[in-house]
Amino acid sequence: RDVSTLLNLFDFEESAGEWMTKMAYEYVASGAADELTLRWNRQALDAIRLNPTVLTDVSQLDTSVSLFGTRLSHPILIAPTAYHRLLHPEGELATVRGAGAASALYVVSSFTTTPLAEIAERVTQPLWFQLYVRDDRAFTKDLIQEAEALGYRALCITVDTPTPGVRNREHRSRFKLPDGVRTPHMGGPLVEKKPLTWKDIEWIQSFARTPVLLKGILNPDDAEKAVESGISGLIVSNHGGRNLDTVPATIDALPRIAERVDQRIPVLLDGGIRRGTDVLKAIALGASAVLVGKPICYGLACGGAEGVAKVLQILQHELELAMTLTGRATLASIDRSVIWQ
Ligand code: FNR
Questions:
Q1: Any stretches that span the bilayer, and where are they (predicted)?
Q2: 130: helix, coil or strand?
Q3: 236 three-state secondary structure
Q4: Is 73 exposed, middle or buried (0-12, 13-18, 19+ CB in 10 A)?
């Protein structure tokens, strides 16, 4: 599919809706229950107004950011999403090429349909690994150590999914993986019996050799506990509105968490980021970087590696425009004063 006519991330979503099978589209697009949180993620970002500064020197824009000693040319990461071969025949191998073309860090999902080793072979950009902790802790430990040995540079433990949420739309479309699409690092769906607790996180930290981030933090008290437990970074996330409906938009949860963490560790955010101004708003309210989920799935479905790259390039370009137009030449200069109070 020709992606050259798609100008923004909403164009990709619309085009994907026409192009993908209904089942795959419903799987990606749907949220939990009444989809209130799914909508709020967008609405809350839209409701924030900007307060530009004029007549500043923005001739040398710098969108780069350092995370755990890795310099990234921009703060837009690929969020972990499952089943890329459901979306495109090349699956995660297309995603990783797209990431490379757009110089974006890619967080590979535990539900990857391509072995971690094959993705790592193709890499020109840093990779992180997203972990779902299984009841079989020996399996989990082996998986972490495999990812580390392959060069995945950080571990994002997803902590907001003790169970999948109420997914009415997904069930209605009778979601089922096509024959031949497998998840080599996940034996089956997430139906764990042992609860994941801080003890398990400590256990993982006891042997992990790369930074450990917690993905799915909304509560400032949890953020505090994480910092005290020596966690390296947090991802403020409501799983794209897919798990617990009626939790707040992530952009609304971010300020309190950023305040509590008080720059002791990096705080990242995902959920509803679709425009360069959204990235700028997240950074202004305390995020070091953002991740995008659904738009990457749509880019992959519409145009494989090229589609993924284009989604990221559009967002990065829009961020540069937003920085220029608000008079902020660096990410460090994007503070709360850019938000209209
Ligand atoms: C996800 N997400 C997710 N998260 C995770 O930790 N492991 C996973 O395997 C998946 N799988 C997944 C599949 C699909 C189709 C979607 C849309 C999302 C959540 C994802 O990492 C991220 O938190 C949200 O997608 C961010 O919100 P946006 O950008 O989709 O609005």
A1: none
A2: strand
A3: strand
A4: middle
Nearest-angstrom CA–CA distance, 77 and 172: 31
Confirm whether residue 337 is marked as ligand binding. no
Residue 216 CA, closest ligand 1 atom number: 23
Mean pLDDT for 211-225 is 98
DSSP letters, 3-62, are -TT--SHHHHHHHHHHHS-HHHHHHHH--STT-HHHHHHHHHHHH--B----S---SS-B
Measured from the CB, is residue 37 less than 6 Å from ligand 1?
A: no
185 carries an active-site annotation: no
Residue 233 CA to residue 111 CA, distance in Å, equals 22
Ligand 1 pocket member 133 (CB < 6 A): no
pLDDT tens digits for 287-308?
999 999 999 999 999 999 999 9
The full length of the chain comes to 341
User: 236 C-alpha to center of ligand 1: Å?
Assistant: 12
Q: What is the tens place of the pLDDT at every residue in 71-83?
A: 999 999 999 999 9
Q: Is 111 in the pocket of ligand 1 (CB under 6 A)?
A: yes
Q: How many angstroms separate the CA atoms of 196 and 179, rounded?
A: 31
Q: Cα–Cα distance between 260 and 266 in angstroms, integer?
A: 12
Question: Is 185 labeled as ligand-binding?
Answer: no
Beta bridge partner(s), residue 140: none
Which of 119, 140, 137, 138 is closest to 128 using CA atoms? 119
